[in-house]
Amino acid sequence: MVQGVQIIDGVIQNVNPATGELIDPPVAVATPSEIVDAISKANAAQIAWSDIPLNERIARLREGIAAVEPIAHELQQTITKEMGKICSEAKDEVEEAISLKGEWLDMVREANEDVKLGDGAAESVIVRDPLGVVTVISPWNFPCGEIPLLAIPALAAGNTVIVKPSEVTPLTGALLCSAIASSLPDGVLQVVQGDGKVGEQLVTNDDVHMVAMTGSSATGKRIMEKCAKSLKRLVLELGGKDPMVVFGDADLDKAANDAVSNSLFNAGQVCCAVERIYVDKSVQNKFEAKVIDIASRQKVGDPTAENVTMGPMVSQVQLENVQNQVNESIKKGAKVLYKSEIPRGGNFYPVTVLSGLKQVRLHHYETFGPVVAISTFDGTEEQAIKLANDTPYGLASYVYTCDLQKGSRVARKIRSGQVGINCYSLVAAQPKCPW
After folding, report:
1. Which among 264, 212, 273 has a CA at the least distance from the CA of 239?
2. Catalytic residue among 237, 275, 288, 366
3. Are 398 and 245 in contact, with CB atoms under 8 Å apart?
4. What stretches of 103-237 show up as alpha helix (H) in DSSP?
5. How far apart are the first and last CA of the chain?
6. Which helix (H) or strand (E) holds 418?
7. Is residue 271 annotated as part of the catalytic site, yes or no?
8. What is the predicted pLDDT for the residue at 151?
9. Which of 47, 140, 214, 337 could pair covalently with 237 via S-S, beta carbons 3.0-4.6 A apart?
10. Consecutive sets of 10 residues in the chain, 435 residues long: mean pLDDT of each?
């Protein structure tokens, strides 16, 4: 039961996190027979879809992504209703999804083209063959942005795809996929709604040949265990506990601004959010003063209001998780530097700035909330690396220093998929960078 979402009489109880009201229209959970039918339909459509030349498949996918543009505003509103993202961030998410029809889709095509090897005397050809049917299990925090990133490459390769949107954001997933599917043959892209039980039926079915999932590490482990039994292909993008290291020679204005904005974006509900900040103790006071100043300008409230910079948490479950971590940290000595006001009702949590954190859960386990968590280090590269690596996660990290050689040395020793030096790597990285 993701984020406490209830299923009553076979219908997802889709609740607006800002108001607590049920969202219309109701979304029915797929029955076991409907799931089997969708898988059969996907398999029946797959061979004909893969027989279409690559360039034509890409053209159809480009047309499908373009079909999202006329419903962009409706999508934005649905995202805000279902998971509480403020309107400006929802707008950015939809626009980013639409932009995939350009350079990014060209890169997908290039990745699927035949590669010829040889010097003329003998020639080899590397051919990318489709696997068959791919199940995409998408997250609630980017319900429009993540589905294309998982589904489009699979479709371009000649697979058919069944998307199970998060039960937290079922209408967003359905609306997006309906637009993209409008340019594709019947059965090539389908949506199956439901909770983890539906996901398990899709993952374990022998006629599904690959699973692509973005979500929590706990769910990813369960999916990996299920797929291992048949050696089913699997792509996972899971949680993070991303550190930010601020050396004494850093541009403190930029570092403080990035620390706050990348801790609070999407109410902190981002896998690569800044969740741990280690600042050189020699500049601690200056840095914290700048952070407090920036944090105090944030406004928590109705995500549809123009002057609001942060909406509600997605659920009461998520709110309580953040609150428990913060409370434990305070009990063990952390100091509250700032705490914003919040409106009554809804799943609102205050912008919170903490300092002086010790060995607590908030330092080691994903928080996924609007907390700017500051600790200090002695200013050496060695301790910065040690603290940054003190986590079971390894998604992204951030290093701030005006000495780029030092930044590069530290970045190379942090065990992380991406490291941004004086930047937020997810945004600043070149499109061809792996993620």
Report:
1. 273
2. 237
3. yes
4. 103-112, 146-156, 170-181, 196-204, 217-228
5. 28
6. strand 418-421
7. yes
8. 98
9. 214
10. 89 98 97 98 98 98 98 98 98 98 97 91 93 98 98 98 98 98 98 97 98 95 96 96 98 98 98 97 98 98 97 97 97 97 97 93 93 98 97 95 98 96 94 83
Are residues 313 and 84 in contact, defined by beta-carbon separation less than 8 angstroms? yes
Give the integer Cα–Cα distance in Å for 271 and 73.
25
Residue 374 DSSP SS3: strand
Residues 6 or more apart in contact with residue 51 via CB below 8 angstroms: none
Annotated catalytic residue within 144, 227, 271, 272: 271
From the list 180, 376, 149, the residue with the least C-alpha distance to 282 is: 376
Token pair of 66 as six digits = 């373009």
Residue 165 amino acid letter: P
Other beta carbons within 10 Å of 96 = 15
Radius of gyration of the chain (CA): 23
Active site residue 381: no
Q: Give the total residue count for the chain.
A: 435
| pLDDT score at 122 | 87
